[in-house]
Specification:
By secondary structure, the chain is an alpha+beta fold. Helices cover about 30% and strands about 35% of the residues.
Length: about 130
């Protein structure tokens, strides 16, 4: 009985976790922002210069879900790239997609950088010195 209950709990947690997927474009991490203050662009691109942080997909057509995920990445805004119905074995489920962006002259600080990025910088610095 315990195995069945633990299997159900595990499968439920996987189904909840699979509602939102994030594909990061950058390795730099920024301090989280407030989801309520994230701007949404859907018909035109922002006029300010920006960096694309990640593509976010949600199985719900709820913009607040996208904004919350973007806020975790430190985004200032999201650009809506699509909202459509995905055919998953003849069951149509809604899907919303956006790109989380960070304005280049934004005042927020870098949270921490990825360890691989730091290692690459050190490697490149030592390579330059040895020339």
């Amino acid at each position: 009985m315990k195995k069945i209950v633990s299997f159900l709990v595990l499968s439920l947690s996987f189904s909840i976790a699979s509602c939102v997927s994030v594909n990061k474009y950058v390795t730099t991490r920024y301090a989280p922002t407030n989801a309520d203050k994230i701007e949404v662009y859907s018909t035109q691109l922002p006029k300010k210069e920006y960096i694309e942080l990640a593509e976010i997909k949600s199985q719900e057509e709820d913009i607040m879900t996208l904004k919350e995920e973007a806020a975790k990445l430190g985004a200032d805004a999201i650009i809506m790239t699509g909202a459509n119905s995905v055919n998953a074995n003849t069951i149509h489920t809604p899907e919303a997609k956006c790109v989380a962006i960070k304005f280049k002259n934004s005042s927020s600080r870098i949270y921490r950088t990825d360890r691989n990025q730091i290692a690459r910088r050190r490697y490149n610095d030592t390579k330059r010195r040895s020339r």
